[in-house]
Specification:
heterodimer; A: alpha+beta; Cytochrome-c3 Hydrogenase, chain B; B: 175 residues; Beta Polymerase, domain 2; five-stranded mixed beta sheet; two-stranded parallel sheet; elongated; NAD binding (chain A)
Chain lengths: 421, 175
């Protein structure tokens, strides 16, 4: 019987073995790196792959010849779950789409439902929605920038960004009662008003966040290692980005000026003064710079909105849509009935369909909603911005070095929760 | 709501448009015959500058008042220069669940069509790589159809029964 530990002889001794014979005449110092096509699995346990995504990479040396991206199994059955609960009960599901900016998903969904009903929400509620969204835009971009810096070897900017993120988390927790699972919006307005002293605390936090952002920027933007790995890598042309359906900072990094807050203004964005930064090269470095610039613009929006916010109600006064005030529930039969019907049967949204989109941190967050006239959505489709962006990663990284995959995957800011639908 | 794109499509391909209507929010829709979809999409992209591919999804109309044919595949395409959406629909019956793929026109259609195939079972003729995108290959059925039970489970590894936890109606994967 053959010894299993003995290496097998080359099957065709007359034919040169490409692994050993091809470079036999070269001296050791000048020898080529032996390479043959290799398949490796990046992820799902690779830290850059978010614990779910698996890239089946076909390598020749260090060059990626082909990459097949599998999203993995983070599925919660978002659409199916929403179609089996009342409109208001969908809110906790929407929070968890993009867990770096839950308020934006929350408000985006509500905006679509309100459009289907034909409902105008009070101005104060619109301001608070803008404030919540922009706080979470900074939060989302900080997460992305910090993770990018850390995965390319810089831990200090990550810590500074986390400190800034904590400040936002604290303000959000004061506002909504939760750091992550906010469920703050309601059809027709909001759950509750701003707490006392919240505006002053937020302004102070913004000052501190600006300082920390300057630290992050100064540590990364001109860092030799960071710039060398980001500039000129992960390039996508503007035509390709549009063809794939990219939106948000990743599209704007290609030089396309497209921002729903400007092109189809919603809430009170048309009353606020801000710029839309636009990149040039469509590479990783531009996508990083876009997020840095957008955070500054969000801060501008926040300071204006906090100064201009009017007083008034935060939810519509219509008991068919919003829960009646508690004294009415406890004191009047109409209040009890409205409360009971809203909780048990849900809001009766008129039959029809709507497509509506808001500009979330990663791009166009679209909702296609069909109602059959009942208290539950018949169909909820979410057009998550991360889904088309992730679909293009394989084509971006093909032909480039394996090491470029990490910054590319970081700067597209793929969020498992929204991609899995 | 401007209906510029749909007017041009109707003028160019009158045989392709089965129906046009406004939804209750004023959004303009066109129902397209499936066989004309690729040329309508190519016309929108190359002639009318509707280049941003937003998304595709399907609706299972099983429990709606109008439920024949059963499925509607909906397309959303945007124009960056005109700042407009165009919304198209293709209706497809359960017995003829196949419509032409748009991957040759829009690269972004690739994953969305896989998504619709995965969850509704609508096949896209001419798609280069039509396989499930979110669920695993061995999965039986299409879970976003209305006749797929909410709590139906198909675990790859049998779930262990857990004491005192009610997983709700439907098969739990534990026999």
């Amino acid at each position: 019987m053959a010894d299993p530990h003995k290496p097998a002889a080359h099957p065709h001794p007359d034919v040169p073995n490409p692994d050993t014979d091809a470079y036999a005449q070269e001296s050791e110092l000048e020898a080529h790196l032996q390479s043959k096509p290799m398949f490796i699995n990046m992820g799902p346990s690779h830290p850059a792959m978010h614990g779910t995504v698996r890239m089946k990479v076909h390598l020749e040396g260090e060059i990626i010849k082909n990459a097949d991206c599998e999203i993995g199994f983070l599925h919660r059955g978002f659409q199916k779950s929403c179609e089996n609960v009342t409109w208001t009960q969908c809110l906790p599901y929407t929070d968890r789409l993009n867990y770096a900016s839950p308020l934006m998903n929350n408000f985006g969904f509500l905006n679509a439902v309100e459009k289907l009903i034909g409902l105008e929400i009070p101005e104060r509620a619109q301001y608070i929605r803008v404030i919540g969204s922009e706080l979470h835009r900074i939060h989302d971009h900080l997460t992305c920038v910090a993770a990018t810096g850390m995965e390319l070897g810089g831990f200090a900017p990550f810590l500074f960004a986390m400190e800034a993120r904590e400040l936002i988390m604290d303000r959000v927790a004061e506002l909504t009662g939760a750091r992550l699972t906010t469920s703050f919006g309601r059809v027709g307005g909001l759950n509750r008003d701003l707490p006392e002293g919240w505006i002053e605390r937020t302004l102070k936090s913004l000052d501190k966040i600006r300082e920390l952002n300057i630290e992050v920027e100064s540590l990364l933007s001109r860092n030799r290692i960071f710039v060398d790995r980001m500039k000129g890598t992960g390039i996508i042309s503007a035509e390709d980005a549009i063809d794939y359906g990219w939106t948000g900072p990743c599209l704007r990094a290609c030089g396309i000026d497209y921002d729903l807050r400007k092109t189809r203004p919603y809430w009170v964005y048309n009353q606020l003064d801000f710029d839309v930064p636009v990149g040039e090269h469509g590479d990783n470095y531009d996508r990083y710079l876009m997020r840095i610039e957008e955070m500054k613009q969000s801060e501008r929006i926040l300071r204006q909105a906090l100064a201009k916010i009017p007083s008034g109600p935060i939810i519509v006064d219509d008991w068919r849509i919003a829960l009646p005030p508690k004294p009415e529930v406890y004191g009047t039969i109409e209040g009890v009935i409205s409360h009971f019907k809203l909780v048990m049967e849900g809001i009766q949204v008129p039959a029809g369909e709507v497509f509506d989109a808001t500009e979330s941190a990663n791009g166009e967050l679209g909702w296609y909603i069909v109602s059959d006239g009942g208290g539950r959505p018949y169909k909820v489709h979410v057009r998550a911005p991360g889904f088309p962006i992730l679909s293009a990663v394989s084509s971006i990284v093909t032909g480039n070095m394996l090491a470029d995959l990490i910054p590319t995957f970081d700067t597209i800011n793929m969020i498992g929760g929204e991609v899995e639908q | 709501m401007s209906t510029f794109a749909l007017d041009r499509v109707t003028a160019q391909f009158p045989e392709a448009v089965a129906e046009r209507y406004l939804d209750r929010t004023g959004g303009a829709w066109a129902v397209i015959h499936a066989e004309h979809l690729p040329k309508v999409a190519a016309f929108l992209k190359h002639e009318l500058d509707f280049k941003l591919f937003v998304s595709i999804d399907a609706v299972d109309r099983l429990h709606l008042a109008e439920n024949d044919p059963r499925f509607e595949v909906v397309y959303f395409i945007s124009s960056l220069s005109r700042r407009e959406h165009v919304r198209l629909k293709v209706r497809v019956s359960e017995s003829q669940l196949e419509i032409p793929s748009l991957v040759s026109v829009f690269k972004g259609a690739n994953w969305w069509e896989r998504f619709v195939w995965d969850f509704y079972g609508v096949r896209f003729a001419g798609h280069p790589d039509l396989r499930r995108v979110l669920l695993y290959e061995e999965f039986q059925g299409h879970p976003l159809r209305k006749d797929y039970a909410l709590r139906d489970r198909q675990p790859l590894i049998p779930e262990r029964p857990i004491k005192d936890i009610f997983r709700g109606p439907g098969t739990s994967g534990v026999s």
